[in-house]
């Protein structure tokens, strides 16, 4: 009887026992993480990726807006060297500060510097003209 029982074990494939014990899902992380096809356990991860991409997009828009403010500051500050220095100088200073805070520090502070220089020169040179 032992001999017959050992023949049954020998003829029975080992993989059947193994497959019944291990029921794992394979390659779940290969699925795209969009809302319609994501697995429930991956939905939170997909939301984090969406939040991250939205924050990067908002940062890019903010930097672009900062560049616009900073370039307007430089233009108005240079204009203040020739026409109405106090008005255009103040516009250049304010726009330069806004542009620098929104991500375009070099151009923003350049506009602030030129605007300040224009206002100081106009105040110091006003008594001579």
UniProtKB/TrEMBL annotation:
It comes from the Bacteria. This is DUF4190 domain-containing protein. It comes from Fictibacillus macauensis ZFHKF-1. The chain crosses the membrane at residues 68-100, 106-128. Keywords: Membrane, Transmembrane, Transmembrane helix. Residues 40-63 have a biased composition (Basic and acidic residues). Residues 33-63 are annotated as: Disordered. The lineage of its organism: Bacteria, Bacillati, Bacillota, Bacilli, Bacillales.
């Amino acid at each position: 009887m032992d001999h017959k029982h050992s023949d049954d074990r020998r003829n029975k494939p080992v993989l059947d026992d193994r497959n019944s014990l291990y029921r794992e899902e394979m390659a779940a992380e290969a699925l795209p993480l969009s809302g319609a096809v994501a697995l429930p356990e991956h939905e939170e991860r997909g939301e984090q990726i969406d939040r991250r991409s939205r924050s990067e997009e908002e940062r890019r828009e903010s930097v672009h807006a900062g560049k616009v403010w900073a370039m307007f500051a430089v233009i108005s500050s240079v204009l203040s060297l020739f026409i109405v220095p106090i008005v255009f100088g103040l516009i250049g200073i304010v726009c330069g500060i806004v542009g620098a805070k929104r991500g375009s520090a070099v151009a923003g502070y350049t506009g602030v510097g030129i605007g300040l220089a224009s206002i100081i020169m106009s105040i110091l040179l006003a008594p001579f003209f």
